[in-house]
Amino acid sequence: MIEPLLLNLEHRDVLAPSEHALLRKTMTMSRRIAKGDDLVSDGSRPTCSTLLVQGFAARYKITRDGGRQITALHVPGDFVDLHAFLLKTMDHGIVALSPCHVLLADHADLRQITESSPHLARLLWLDTLVHGSIHRAWIVAMGRRSKASHLAHIVCELYARLQITGNVDGQSFHFPLSQAEMADVMGLSLVHMNRVIQDMRRNGLISWVNQTVSILDWERLRTLAEFDPTYLNLWIEPR
Amino acid sequence: MIEPLLLNLEHRDVLAPSEHALLRKTMTMSRRIAKGDDLVSDGSRPTCSTLLVQGFAARYKITRDGGRQITALHVPGDFVDLHAFLLKTMDHGIVALSPCHVLLADHADLRQITESSPHLARLLWLDTLVHGSIHRAWIVAMGRRSKASHLAHIVCELYARLQITGNVDGQSFHFPLSQAEMADVMGLSLVHMNRVIQDMRRNGLISWVNQTVSILDWERLRTLAEFDPTYLNLWIEPR
DNA sequence: CGCGATCTTGATAGGGTTCAAGGTCCGTGG
DNA sequence: CCACGGACCTTGAACCCTATCAAGATCGCG
């Protein structure tokens, strides 16, 4: 069940068999979370970290006026709250956008990894750095891209991230978010989100029906998004 | 010269004298960068990481149409491209917004720290996690706050970050950005940025003259920004 | 004193929010 | 098996926020 994480890490560096074993030993507990429930709550102080192995989840923050902003989307293989191992207190929540299956790693065991297995520790560090890199890509998209380009960038990114764990099917992937949730990702109103999506469809770039997104024209989508996957660090090198 | 980094780390955990010494030994080279020059260039593969000890710097990305989005502001004490130690290839640039003084740490030496000094390694990891946390706060501000609230949040955040290294003076701090640069931070046009700033002044929240920002009414500024410093992790605990 | 960089203001147009209403789909219970 | 309700998607219209274009004002420096 830990395979999605291994695939993730192995796209960045070679793992020794002992590192496989160590990770397996660390991820003991398993949990299922229903759609809409929090994997991790705002303000909590987790004592273990959550690895998402199945389903979609989102980091989010609620503002005083009741608005919600999603700051990250998580897919199978993402170590969703590895952050809390060192940050200690959650300053935002993480919610299941679909039924989720997760594995838990006790912080004491993670600490043990940093003490005894520096290479594996660097790869876990790297995992959090890649998510930081994704945050920067989102900031650029929010600040300086058209809404269509922003959406296109998200679709390209999700395709790339889902592909490495085998969660795509041809040019399509399962995508369980509602348009309202997508609006919370892009910082738009629901009405405008809907219009941006329909423009995209009319232009023959994507289809999105039945919780399935399909990329109809990669080249034009990539160009519109100015998508360059460098920031996802999807290549192997010694780290 | 390494003091700002020590102050930064020591706001999160206790450092042993040997860890002080190790950091000092690692930060050998020193460099000065003129305003407007890149500390680190987009697309490069740095072999050392840059610690900012004096001045302001910004991470930025240029879009095809010539727009610029600043994804992070850096102040003295920030280990600005520790990321590249593991991410390897820069997918964005880092520019000096004022004359900057930096220290360099060779990646081989950083690797040595992760091998021999796990606690210090965790603190460096933590430093990058805090910057990820700041990214998320920015995403929330860009997506779901009014422009005035967004600006207020940035002012609160900078004040808090500058304070821990002793770079504030009462309720004021030196802030060398132009309004055009600030527009690239917030993803606005220059004209609108100017209007947001003037609203803020008219409301008696801040003054901003001569590269000096002063907070005139903390309580109202904090409320407007919904600023909660939890995400900056400015408290000591074992990590 | 003159020039470039920066800040400020006005006018216009377009993008995005909000309010309102109707449509579609699907699961549930009578 | 069909009626109903709820979640989600779609559309229209009015208004406001923000970008863009254009020009003038201010500041600091050589």
Automatic annotation (TrEMBL), chains A, B:
The keyword Cell membrane does not apply. Residues 145-219 form the HTH crp-type domain. It comes from the Bacteria. This is Crp/Fnr family transcriptional regulator. The keyword Cell inner membrane does not apply. Pfam families: cNMP_binding, HTH_Crp_2. Keywords: DNA-binding, Transcription, Transcription regulation. It comes from Pseudorhizobium endolithicum. InterPro entries: cNMP-bd_dom, cNMP-bd_dom_sf, HTH_CRP, RmlC-like_jellyroll, WH-like_DNA-bd_sf, WH_DNA-bd_sf.
